[in-house]
Amino acid sequence: MDKTLQEAIILQILTAVASLRNDLPADDLANYSRTKLMEMSDEDLAIALSRFSDETLAKGQLAEMQSQEAQKEKEGLLVDRDTGLGTKDACARMISERASLAGDWSVIFMDLNGLKAVNDNIGEFAGDDLIKVAGKAIRGSTREGEGFRIGGDDFVVVLQDCPSEVVKSKAIDITNAFMAMWNNYNNTNAVPNEFVGMSYGIATTKDKELEGATFETLKAAAFASMKEHKTAPIDLGNGQYKKKPTRDETVAALKAHMQVNGITAVFKSPEEFQAHVKTSGRFTPTPIQTEEMKVSQQDTSKTD
Predict the structure, then answer these.
(1) Same-domain check for residues 263 and 172
(2) Residue 9's closest CA among 36, 49, 41?
């Protein structure tokens, strides 16, 4: 082999050794000293170069895989896996990125009614499905980057430069969609609608007292409005109102309803629940399919 070519190959191998220095044992490095390499046959040099080329490539592939895993982990912090909505971290990032933008802001704070009653009387699988239904309803009525799950059953929709009447309409659309989807899931009335619902509150910088408010201030105001909505008496018409039950009252009422219908256990899965009630034929919730939760974000015209 030409000495110049041999020197070039040796240089490549030594460079590879240097780049892998932290990954190779000390005695392995000693075997590939410059003197040893100079004494190698053409065949041995080719094998050595092939080995280090393969290891260098493998190291590069490992680095790429680690980078991809880090990206997936990062995305996992920004997208809620149960609902497909943005997470609390994603909401904070969005607010931070848009903090300097001018315009009006509106926040819809949404909270589920009856989650504890469903968890305690049917099983946490049904409560999880209730949250998934809420996420699907919000995704279907908002654009990507507008809806977020910021807590267990707490959600916010953040809108910019959206007319007040449209904000209110969007909140109503989401709650109506939620109930429609829940009815489809709860297709044989295992949990009557009186036990489940969604409350919302709205705050906007269009309101004089909130003009120029920060996101946290808007969120707090929307939360307070939601609590009022959650506890407000039910209008029965003709000037008659009915006090809304407390959370504990709802839990007890649903328990009594289930017992009347022969359901006395709390279940770990839809299959266990359905097996228990199969003979009665009264209740058969339709499981929320994973595929249904992958519906792409809809770009509606309701915020235009």
Answers:
(1) yes
(2) 49
Provide the token pair at 271: 């299959």
- Residues 44 and 101 reside in one and the same domain: no
Tokens of 122: 């049917």
Residues 137 and 257 in one domain: yes
Total tally of structural domains belonging to the chain: 2
3-state SS class at 211: coil
Among 137, 152, 158, 235, CA closest to 204? 158
pTM of the model: 0.66
pLDDT in tens, 31-66: 545 555 556 566 666 666 666 556 555 566 556 655
Residue 69: both structure tokens together: 């895993």
Find residue 149's DSSP bridge partners: 155
From residue 190, give the alpha-carbon distance in Å to each of 34, 121, 122, 160, 252: 78, 11, 9, 39, 15
Structure letter (DSSP) for residue 283: -
CA distance 270 to 273: 5
Task: Report helix, strand or coil for 242.
Answer: strand
Residues 182 and 274 in one domain: yes
Q: Is the dihedral of CA 288, 293, 299, 304 positive or negative?
A: positive
43 burial type by CB count under 10 A (0-12 exposed, 13-18 middle, 19+ buried):
exposed
276 shares its domain with 182: yes
